[in-house]
Design a protein that fits this description.
The complex is a heterodimer of chains A (about 110) and B (about 110). Chain A is mainly β. Chain A has no helices and 11 strands. In chain A, strands 2, 4, 5, 6, 9, 10 and 11 form a 7-stranded mixed beta sheet that branches. In chain A, strands 1-3-8-7 form a 4-stranded antiparallel beta sheet, with no helix packed on it. The termini of chain A are far apart. In chain B, about 0% of the residues lie in helices and about 55% in strands. Chain B has no helices and 12 strands. The chains are: A mainly beta (about 110), B mainly beta (about 110).
Chain lengths: ~110, ~110
């Protein structure tokens, strides 16, 4: 039981390149979330998916797209990366029926040059 | 709407001394409250949570927090810290009826020998 896994762990992109961050959970949870963490700003919600087939915008969705491929997987895509998207990205998944208690993945550290 | 304020961005303390990390929140609805800990280069781990009942909640690693509704606070305390407690601590609020956690900006606890 790995919980929440994320790939890759690290990535360096040039401005304008695209990439997809992958997240998977093996806990059979309905909801999944993507956050970004920046110094002095805490964690901010980018997008979330309350159930398979649904996605909703969070606090900072601009420049990102998401796909809830199935119940296990929730990917985050940067179509045209910008230096402002340099951040640490965390995927999280709360226990079904307990949205408030989230389990976090180890994070993806992204640097956009 | 909900918001969380962590009043101290950094708290230096000597080993075996007591520590308090402050957290205040605002919300128009009833809330659940959380403290998460993030060790260097790792994801977030749940430290403790208040959902209902006793206002004093105990968490892992000897930490505890007290929910004070009149002061809208949820301060985190530990009577004697260890070097290994050096980490960043995030307070978060989940408003009932909402779908997401809102995080504070974090407090970095630095424990020195």
């Amino acid at each position: 039981n790995a919980g929440v896994t994320q790939t890759p762990k690290f990535q360096v992109l040039k401005t304008g390149q695209s990439m997809t961050l992958q997240c998977a959970q093996d806990m059979n949870h309905n909801s999944m979330y993507w956050y970004r963490q920046d110094p002095g700003m805490g964690l901010r919600l980018i997008y979330y998916s309350a159930s398979e087939g649904t996605t909703d915008k969070g606090e900072v969705p601009n420049g990102y797209n998401v796909s809830r491929l199935n119940k296990r997987e929730f990917s985050l895509r940067l179509e045209s990366a910008a230096p402002s998207q340099t951040s640490v990205y965390f995927c999280a998944s709360p226990r079904t029926g307990m949205k408030e208690t989230q389990y976090f993945g180890p994070g993806t550290r992204l640097l956009v040059l | 709407a909900q918001s969380v304020t962590q009043l101290d961005s950094q708290v230096p303390v000597f080993e075996e001394a007591p520590v308090e990390l402050r957290c205040n929140y605002s919300s128009s609805v009833s809330v659940y409250l959380f403290w998460y800990v993030q060790y260097p280069n790792q994801g977030l781990q749940l430290l403790l949570k208040y959902l209902s009942g006793s206002t004093l909640v105990k968490g892992i690693n000897g930490f505890e927090a007290e929910f004070n509704k009149s002061q809208t606070s949820f301060h985190l305390r530990k009577p004697s810290v260890h070097i290994s407690d050096t980490a960043e601590y995030f307070c978060a609020v989940f408003g009932t009826g909402f779908q997401k956690l809102v995080f504070g900006t974090g407090t970095r606890l630095l424990v020195s020998p």
